[in-house]
Design goal:
One of its GO terms (molecular function) is oxidoreductase activity. This is Zinc-binding dehydrogenase. InterPro entries: ADH-like_C, ADH-like_N, ER, GroES-like_sf, HotDog_dom_sf, MaoC-like_dom, NAD(P)-bd_dom_sf, NodN-like. It comes from Aquiflexum gelatinilyticum. This protein is α/β, with parallel strands linked by helices. Helix content is about 35%, strand content about 25%. The strands form four sheets. Strands 3, 4, 5, 6, 7, 14 and 15 form a seven-stranded mixed beta sheet that branches. It has a six-stranded parallel beta sheet with strand order 10-9-8-11-12-13, with helices on both faces. Strands 16, 17, 18, 19, 20 and 21 form a six-stranded antiparallel beta sheet that branches. A hairpin with a 5-residue loop joins strand 19 and strand 20. The radius of gyration is 25 Å and the shape is globular.
């Protein structure tokens, strides 16, 4: 397989594009055929041997990938071959295939394309952990983001707005600040030409900012710390400027402020349950259109050293991406023709992203981006979801959530003695509660401001669901109603079937409210 290889530590120009053997799996690893790989600042540090993790030479950089599982180790039970996933591999992603520990691999929601999956988790995961778990930022508080135009910085700007903060974006050029403004920044600070402390003082009427998120370090850190409010929180995320600042800690004493480290990589392993919840929160924000990654440029696998060079030279606004499989399948001539721009510079256009999205469509997926898209589907089938298993654990948790402890649901010994087949029954409303999970698998919406499960009509449960049964959803979009306030009601005829029943296990008319 093809890969970008670091054979000795140095700058991006020392990396080689070469053939290497496929990785050999261990028991709890999976082999992923890489579709897309994100470019992150730790990649630049890894190849120079300046990062806290030090992979053995030779290795490929690239720590955040999306793709398809090609093979699973013998000890992997929750993932399967052919599954679309994203993974935090640490390194190895600048290659056609990468092996990853199964605990670092996550299924991609059906409505999410590979480029979005690979570009979002690291930056938004870091920013969300910083703001939510460390700073515990509250609506109405002020947030200063240093290095606001980078991947983590821009994610912090967008998440800060979603979380109700007043956002101050600081970056080095007017062009970078313009992107921050597009992402919702309330105030802009050019720290190359303006005094950070003085600008903060003016913009906050002398109070200072409640939270600083710093991915830059260097000479910008101390004036930002001096511009903090009483009991502020200073989030140390990274040192993109290359210099670790030496802060005068008397400032922390005088301001009663906290200086907090943010290391999302370790958090994701030390506090896995909380990290999983954060990931689900972020996926929900993506699905509802609250957050969206800004793609600076997409490179081929062969060009990924240039992506690292652009990262080092602070040219990247948002996220740089590598489209791995496209580089394998296209000729160099076709790629060159696609990449030539009017000013003569070489860059990938939206075609790179489009090709990956088209591949998703070829796998049977649709994407609805407007009311007009949905109108075309009225009277037609939305398709069939994947199977999900209704385990006894799921039945037990539903009983606990609803405080409905009937023995037919939770008493396995009594069920074995008295019920047909000897298995506990799932509550009918449990079956119905799985509809939202399955409906958005076959009704993928992109760019919506809101999607709400509005109600159901004429619900019936013709057949029971037993513990261990698999169920799936078939649905048809039967009608739509648009209202003057911009909302659109979707009427969906849904039928859920079981792998062990001749009749449907649930039939209902669903009403979903969406707004683009």
């Amino acid at each position: 397989m093809k890969a970008i290889l670091c054979t000795h530590h140095g700058l991006p120009e020392t990396l080689t594009y070469t053939d290497i053997v496929d990785p050999v799996l261990e028991e709890k690893e999976v082999l992923i055929r890489v579709k897309a790989c994100a470019v992150n600042f730790p990649d630049v540090l890894l190849i120079q041997d300046k990062y806290q993790f030090k992979p053995t030479l030779p290795f490929s950089p690239g720590g955040e990938v999306s793709g398809v599982i090609e093979k699973t180790g013998a000890g992997v039970k929750h993932l399967k071959e052919g599954q679309r996933v994203l993974a935090l591999c640490g390194w190895g992603g600048f290659a056609e295939k990468v092996k990853v520990g199964a605990d670092r691999v996550f299924p991609i929601p059906p409505q999410m394309d590979y480029m979005t999956a690979a570009s979002t988790l690291y930056t938004f995961g870091t920013a969300y952990h910083a703001l939510k778990d460390r700073a515990k930022i509250q609506p109405g508080e002020t947030l200063l983001v240093l290095g606001a135009s980078g991947g983590v910085g821009l994610a912090a700007v967008e998440l800060g707005k979603v979380m109700g903060a007043i956002v101050f974006a600081a970056a080095s050029t007017a062009e970078k600040l313009a992107v921050c403004k597009e992402k919702g920044a309330d105030h802009l600070i050019n720290y190359e030409s303006e005094n950070i402390k003085e600008r903060i003082k003016i913009l906050t009427d002398g109070k200072g900012v409640d939270v600083v998120l710093d991915v830059v370090g260097g000479r910008y850190a101390e004036p930002a710390l001096r511009g903090m409010a009483w009991k502020g929180r200073y989030l140390v995320v990274g040192f993109a400027a290359g210099e670790i600042p030496k802060l005068p800690f008397n400032l922390a004493l005088l301001k009663g402020c906290d200086i907090m480290g943010v290391f999302w990589g370790r958090f994701s392993t030390e506090e896995q349950k909380q990290n999983q919840q954060n990931i689900m929160d972020l996926v929900g924000m993506i699905q509802t259109g609250k957050i969206r990654q800004h793609i600076h440029k997409v490179y081929s696998l062969e060009e990924s050293p240039q992506a690292l060079r652009d990262m080092m030279d602070r040219k990247v606004v948002g996220k740089a991406m590598v489209a791995v499989e496209e580089a394998k399948e296209e000729s160099k001539e076709a790629r060159d023709e696609k990449r030539e721009t009017r000013d003569g510079s070489i860059k990938y256009q939206d075609a790179s992203i489009k090709s990956i999205e088209e591949e998703s469509s070829e796998e049977g997926e649709r994407m609805y981006r407007s009311v007009e898209d949905l109108k075309k589907q009225v009277g037609k089938s939305l398709g069939t979801s994947s199977w999900i298993t209704v385990s006894q654990e799921v039945i037990q948790k539903f009983a606990e959530a609803t405080e409905d402890f009937q023995w037919i649901h939770i008493d396995t010994e009594k069920a074995a003695a008295l019920l047909p087949g000897g298995k506990n029954l799932a509550h009918g409303y449990l079956t119905l509660s799985l509809v939202p999970k399955l409906i958005y698998e076959i009704l993928p919406l992109e760019g919506v401001k809101m999607a709400l499960n509005y109600g159901v009509n004429k619900v019936r449960f013709p057949s029971p669901v037993y513990s261990g049964d698999q169920i799936r959803l078939k649905a048809t979009l039967t009608n739509m109603e648009e209202s003057p306030d911009g909302n659109t009601k979707l009427f969906i005829q849904a039928e859920m079937e079981s792998n062990h029943a001749d009749k449907p296990v649930c039939v209902a008319e669903l009403i979903t409210l969406v707004r683009f």
